[in-house]
């Protein structure tokens, strides 16, 4: 593993940036070699010692493993439990974490036309640090990216910018979508301007065009991660969380996003085709669902009646499957049909995911794709 620090994203690079070296971030719908996950166990975030959540994670891992290798990182004290419960073909590795959101604490993978794989090691402060962050400490989470780089033996670019994987989505052809609510939040990089953040994204991920949506989903505790609101499903096409109720705060958020998306060209000069996915519910934490959680002053509270940021856009695009959350019996089938139309060559697998949502995210949030090296050479 080679680690390169790149303070030059802001201050004048002492090394060539990943983009200058020919690296870029591929789309999630491009071929994968693997998927990385983490095992839930945090008792102040997951009820009843995370036992219900573990079952949901097992279903997600099993579905993804139909068409690609799945690695599940586990703390030592849960290793045996995870190994016994997960299917034999899912690979369990000791990889300590503070919680289970691999999308945000795991690496952002890059590929090179010559077949090389690399990764980005961003800074991480648990979605806001001491100013609105979701838990403390986050020291184990900050080491995950370098550990994965060691395990894979790939080059690791360390970029001293606070950024979580769920805050960005790319089309693999030079376009990135994100939200101002998250990437420009003062609890992430308070001294950075919008132009400076754009330069970091271009230098690090090899993108040309950055689409800024104003806000993420209503009540999203990540400060508006884009992967809960909008994602690329193909070059020139996005899925967008939608709401038809003018009295719902999500109504205005979705329409703001639609206006931006419909008035923007991507890096290839295309107008974007927007596919709307009605939000589930709205969904709220039930009285019994708020019980069984340890109450700690440094952790985000889970209270009865709290609205959850539920979204069908929060799915994982695997090699041969799309794993989507089942959240609302009244809308699950309709959402599944739309997603199936978007991915005709893949099989849509629905997984009961309310237990993941109760922890603050969903299927996309707990997964991180490792792109195929062979595909980058094609």
Automatic annotation (TrEMBL):
Pfam families per UniProt: PAD_porph (PF04371)
Single biological process term from Gene Ontology: putrescine biosynthetic process
An MF annotation (GO) of this entry: agmatine deiminase activity
Catalytic residues (positions): 365 (amidino-cysteine intermediate)
Keywords: Hydrolase
PANTHER family to which the protein is assigned, alphabetical: AGMATINE DEIMINASE-RELATED (PTHR31377)
Similarity comment: Belongs to the agmatine deiminase family.
NCBIfam families assigned: agmatine_aguA (TIGR03380), PRK13551.1 (NF010070)
Name assigned to this protein: Putative agmatine deiminase
Organism: Onishia taeanensis
Taxonomic lineage of the native organism: Bacteria, Pseudomonadati, Pseudomonadota, Gammaproteobacteria, Oceanospirillales
Gene coding for it: aguA
